[in-house]
Amino acid sequence: MNRFKAKTIKNQRNTHILFDYHANYADRVIEERSPYMVENWKSSSHSPEAHIYAIKKIFKKDIRFKKYELDPELKKFIKGKRIAFVGPSSSIKELGLGTKIDSYDLVFRANQHYELPEEETEDYGQKTDAIITCLNQTTFTELNSNLDFIDKIKYIIGGNLLLWDRESVEENLESVDTNSHLPTDGEILAIDKEVGTICNTGFMGIILLLRYPIKELFIAGVDFYDFGEAVGKENVYSSSYEESSNRYHGDLRLDIHDQESQMNYFSRVLEKYDNISLDPILDEYFND
Questions:
Q1: Are residues 142 and 252 in the same domain?
Q2: Which helix (H) or strand (E) holds 128?
């Protein structure tokens, strides 16, 4: 059964070509007039300013950087809760954090679109209340193979939604009863601009959750691709996520997300918030 629709490969390619054409032009103009804007931007993807220019040009819509506004329904769902945010990093293998993760009021997972296999629950936990996902076209292809999973979770958050896919994503989400929250293009780009790169989907999720009045956020299995050292997919992910990624998503594009920019920003986040706890690997790296 295919509950979710996906754009044809031809349509996806044509939209990418059109977007890149306008964004490349915008980046050249920005570099000529205000080079510091591009110099402070670390990503193979276009600058946030160029994204906004291209969206205006292609979709003829008024878009600007926007301060993130709390979603009332999401706020109601997570207010005062102890939350475990779990990524698919292999860094927490054999640490036995599963029981601790499942003890939290809510468990959020990054880009996971399937039920965890039993052999991984000892380290990654069993419970999934919500997912933060990029919601690109291949995500919906994967979700079509895991409809039972998506029907069980309580929330879907678009942490890094591809800007030109917003209309089709909203249409797809109407076909499920699961609550959803999609930050606007301007809100996402404003956060990316502040961090200095296109955020990893998981890291965007952490930033968003911390804007809400939650009691505690325990972060596990998020290691910024081995703290910026990973150059490929080998041994980066848990076994099940590695298999899923290979089947549906192909090769990683690590050049889009600058890990150093995100780690520097995360260090500042840790100084600002006193309700964050970390898995042992993260704790050793950031608190030594």
A1: yes
A2: none
